[in-house]
Protein: Mitochondrial fission process protein 1
Amino acid sequence: MDSSPEKTTKEVDIYRDTWVRFLGYANEVGEAFRALVPVSLVWATYAVATAYVSADAMDKGKKAAAEHGDNPGRTPRVAAAVVDTFVWQALASVAIPGFTINRVCAASLYLLGRTTRWPLPVRKWTTTAIGLSTIPFIITPIDRSVDYLLDSSLRKVYGGGPKHEP
Structure:
């Protein structure tokens, strides 16, 4: 009997297991700084996040293609991997968190303006700090909600898809 522990090797996914994942949060950071920077810079952060989403979707498509080789049904499986990843990432990494941070920052700037006599630059920096501090708290609930949404809709059409872990 072999007493050595089984060696399990997990392939590193650069889009989920490395610093590259933080590129998906670029637009949240941009939204947090919206009160302080030109709007064009905020839109540039959306370009970075969208490039991340697209690269991850293409990567998952390549992996699905390699996994299914020349088997029948390969094309729909590859397409499902690309669509699932792109839609999930677009919702969970770009659209929903960007909107959420935008509204948190807009509401906090408005409330600070109505309830304090702080100078505008102080209110703007406080709003940015609130926006940045909100990011860690919204990630998991949004990820889980998008999983539920896709499991209840799109994934029923093509027979499931990968769960995306934060």
Remarks:
- The two ends are 38 Å apart (CA to CA).
- The longest helix spans residues 74-115.
- Helices lie at 26-32, 39-68, 74-115, 120-152, 154-158.
- The chain has a mean pLDDT of 89.
